[in-house]
UniProtKB/TrEMBL annotation:
It is found in: Membrane. GO terms for molecular function: extracellular ligand-gated monoatomic ion channel activity; transmembrane signaling receptor activity. Residues 26-211 form the Neurotransmitter-gated ion-channel ligand-binding domain. Pfam families: Neur_chan_LBD, Neur_chan_memb. It comes from Rariglobus hedericola. Residues 221-306 form the Neurotransmitter-gated ion-channel transmembrane domain. This is Neurotransmitter-gated ion-channel ligand-binding domain-containing protein. The chain crosses the membrane at residues 213-235, 244-261, 273-295, 315-333. The keyword Membrane applies. Residues 1-19 form the signal peptide. Keywords: Membrane, Signal, Transmembrane, Transmembrane helix.
Length: 334
C-alpha cells in the first residue's frame, strides 16, 4: 500500500513539473538599446504628408549564446552582416508609419566576446507625418520617428533610448527648414487591432520653416499689387471705369498669386496665415470697389465732399490693411 502511495505522489509531482514547463512564469523582458543618428533630411513632402530622411539606426543587445573566446569583436559588413544577423536572435526593431520600403545603404554587425551584439544600418526611409500648417509660413513642425519591435511584445523586448545615442547632423539639405530640438521617449504602445502591447521609442524632431521665401515670393508681390490697387484713389473721382479696371486687374493678379503658392500645399480644411493674407486682400479689394462706386455717386451730387472722402480713403484703406495684416502675424507668432 505504501508503495502505491509513493507511485501516486511521484506521478502527481511529474504532472506538476510538466505543467510548470508548459506555462512558465513571465521572464523579465530583454532590454534592447537603440541609437538614432539623423544624417540628413532630404525632403518634407507637405502635400503628401511625409518626409524622407537618411538615418544611422543602431540596435544593441546582450545575447549570452553569442559569447566567444576571441580577444576582440567579430565584425561583419554589408551583405555578410545581413546574412549573419539573420542566423541569430535579433529584436526585429524597425521604423513604424513608413510609406515605402526602407533603402539599405550600409550595414555593420559586431559580436563581442561577452555576448554583446551591435547591429547598425544606414537607411533612407520615408515616414508619414501630420503637419499643422495653421501658422504657415511662421510654423514649426514636429517630425516623429517611431521605432518598435514587429515580432516581440513589450513583455519580451523592452527598447531603451539613451540620450547620448540620439543625434542629428548640424546641417540638413533643405534650405527652407532649420533643425531644432531633438528628443526621445520610450513607452508601451497598445495596438487595439491586434490586442497587443509593444515597447515603442518615439523620436521627435522640431524643424522651423525659414520665412524668407514667402516674404519675397508672396508678401512683397501682394503688397505691391494692393498698393497699385489703392493708388486708384489718386485718380479723379469721376473716372470710375479706369478705377474699376485697375481694381479688377489687381484682383485677378491676387488670384493667380494665390493659386501659384497653394499648388505646393496640401488641401487642408482650415485657414493658414497665408490664407488670411489673401482673404484680407480680397476683402479690401472688394471694399475699394464699393468705395469707388460710392464716391462716384457722391461726386454727381457734391463734388467737394466726394474729393474730401476720396482723399481720406486713399490712406484709410492701406492703413487698415497693414493693421489687419499685423494682427494676423502677431497672432501667429504668439
Amino acid at each position: 500500500m505504501a508503495f502505491l502511495r509513493c507511485l501516486l505522489l511521484l506521478g502527481l509531482l511529474a504532472a506538476g513539473l510538466r505543467a510548470a514547463e508548459a506555462n512558465p512564469s513571465p521572464a523579465t523582458p530583454r532590454k534592447v538599446e537603440l541609437g538614432v543618428h539623423i544624417l540628413d533630411i532630404s525632403d518634407i513632402d507637405e502635400p503628401g504628408g511625409k518626409f524622407t530622411l537618411h538615418v544611422l539606426l543602431g540596435v544593441y543587445w546582450q545575447d549570452p549564446a553569442q559569447a566567444h573566446d576571441g580577444k576582440g569583436p567579430k565584425v561583419f559588413r554589408e551583405d555578410i552582416a545581413i546574412e549573419e544577423v539573420n542566423t541569430i536572435w535579433r529584436p526585429m526593431v524597425e521604423f513604424n508609419r513608413t510609406t515605402a520600403p526602407a533603402e539599405l545603404h550600409h550595414s555593420l554587425l559586431r559580436i563581442y566576446p561577452n555576448g554583446r551584439v551591435e547591429f547598425e544600418r544606414q537607411l533612407t526611409v520615408q515616414i508619414a507625418t501630420q503637419l499643422d500648417l495653421r501658422k504657415l509660413p511662421f510654423d514649426t513642425q514636429r517630425l516623429k520617428l517611431e521605432l518598435e519591435s514587429f515580432q516581440y511584445l513589450a513583455d519580451e523586448v523592452e527598447v531603451v533610448l539613451p540620450a547620448d545615442k540620439l543625434r542629428i547632423a548640424s546641417r540638413i539639405s533643405l534650405p527652407q527648414w532649420e533643425p531644432g530640438k531633438l528628443v526621445g521617449e520610450v513607452s508601451p504602445h497598445y495596438r487595439e487591432e491586434y490586442n497587443e502591447t509593444y515597447s515603442r521609442a518615439t523620436v521627435t524632431l522640431e524643424v522651423k520653416r525659414h520665412t524668407q521665401f514667402y516674404i519675397w515670393q508672396m508678401m512683397v508681390p501682394l503688397g505691391i499689387v494692393l498698393a497699385m490697387a489703392f493708388a486708384v484713389f489718386f485718380l479723379p473721382p469721376k473716372d470710375l471705369s479706369d478705377r474699376m479696371s485697375v481694381i479688377i486687374a489687381s484682383l485677378l493678379t491676387v488670384v493667380a498669386l494665390s493659386y501659384s503658392l497653394h499648388s505646393g500645399l496640401p488641401k487642408i480644411s482650415y485657414l493658414t496665415v497665408i490664407d488670411w493674407f489673401f482673404v484680407l486682400a480680397y476683402i479690401f479689394l472688394g471694399l475699394a470697389m464699393a468705395g469707388m462706386v460710392w464716391i462716384s455717386n457722391l461726386h454727381d451730387r457734391d463734388e467737394a465732399k466726394a474729393i474730401r472722402a476720396d482723399k481720406w480713403l486713399r490712406w484709410a484703406y492701406p492703413g487698415a490693411y497693414v493693421l489687419a495684416s499685423a494682427i494676423v502675424v502677431i497672432t501667429a507668432l504668439n
